[in-house]
Amino acid sequence: MKESNPAETEGRGEDAGGQDEDAELSGRLAAARPEADLVGRAVVRARVSAALFGRAEAVRIGRYELVGEIGSGGGGTVYVARDPELDRQVALKLVRAEDEALRARAFAEAQALARLAHPNVVPVFDVGVLEDRSGW
User: Fold this and answer.
1) pTM of the predicted model, to two decimals?
2) Residue 118 binned pLDDT confidence (cut-offs 50, 70, 90)
3) Are 103 and 86 in contact (CB under 8 A)?
4) Is the model more confident about 134 or about 106?
5) pLDDT single digits (tens) 27-64
6) How far apart are CA 105 and CA 85, in angstroms?
7) Beta-strand runs (E) in 28-75
8) pLDDT above 60: residue 7
9) Is residue 131's pLDDT more than 90?
């Protein structure tokens, strides 16, 4: 039986304390995006309910009904959504901007993108602030 060298396993979570390190890392990652995770869970719950029972209450952000997650990263999470007023599918980006400086930066980015008209740039049709996060 080969003995493990502590230098080889360091940082890989293979020692006795590795499980504690993994749990700590998981907790820190979950805490980094709590609102996005809650929205994502609500969307998944609605899709599973629709698949199992044939219908589910839509997860709404403003007037938009979230359909599913497209992807997420440092800038936020992008969802496929439906705009029922205009009867069209849209992409909805949720940006986590907890302080006023980040919020101003997100609005400036949205305004700059809204002024652009290019085939390789997604058009911006709406921007807003989500204050009420209850229900997720």
Assistant:
1) 0.59
2) very high
3) no
4) 106
5) 676 666 555 567 777 777 777 777 777 777 778 888 89
6) 28
7) 59-61, 64-73
8) no
9) no
Q: What is the pLDDT of residue 136?
A: 44
Rounded distance between C-alpha atoms, residue 131 and residue 134, angstroms: 9
Q: Where are the beta strands (DSSP E) in 7-119?
A: 59-61, 64-73, 76-83, 88-94
Decide which of 76 and 131 is more confident.
Answer: 76
Buried b (16+ CB within 10 A) or exposed e, 8-32: eeeeeeeeeeeeeeeeeeeeeeeee
The token duo for 121 is 């740039």
Q: Taken in order 18, 24, 28, 30, is the CA torsion positive or negative? A: positive
Sign, CA torsion 113/92/127/33:
negative
Q: Which tokens belong to 1?
A: 């039986």
* Phi, psi dihedral angles at 54 (to 5 degrees): 85, -10
Q: Give ∠ CA 32-36-42 in degrees, rounded to 5.
A: 135
